[in-house]
């Protein structure tokens, strides 16, 4: 996709996501800042904040688990290089701890693909598998929404690990 295609898709994604009933009634949303050619999330994050929604963003820990911090606008993001891994945009403010995600009404998940059963394929680092396991242990039942392009919805995702199924994709 060209840079213009990615920008147009981000705008369309924000509009479509904001129309989801799960996001319409959410008070707290755990999200992420997209990287590379992932569907763009910044417009969505800003629109959620404008609605008065508390937006939590992840910060990658050395063991690939995720800590969380509040998103208060694009100026609250820090560009963080993670060793030989990727560069991510993370919240620059106070860390709220890995369990902060359990208070979210909706968790937006990145993914490479999802199937009709709602099974998600991630990048393989296990960060979001840990988030899903943490939610399950806490008895938290947020809506799980994967942000994808149409071409990333596939016939079947085969998993080695069990995870929660996604509510929307």
From TrEMBL:
Keyword Nucleotide-binding: yes
UniProt binding sites for substrate: 33, 38
Gene3D superfamilies documented for this protein: NagB/RpiA/CoA transferase-like
EC code: 6.3.3.2
BP GO terms, sorted: folic acid-containing compound biosynthetic process; tetrahydrofolate interconversion
Family: Belongs to the 5-formyltetrahydrofolate cyclo-ligase family.
Protein name per Swiss-Prot or TrEMBL: 5-formyltetrahydrofolate cyclo-ligase
Annotated organism of origin: Streptomyces sviceus (strain ATCC 29083 / DSM 924 / JCM 4929 / NBRC 13980 / NCIMB 11184 / NRRL 5439 / UC 5370)
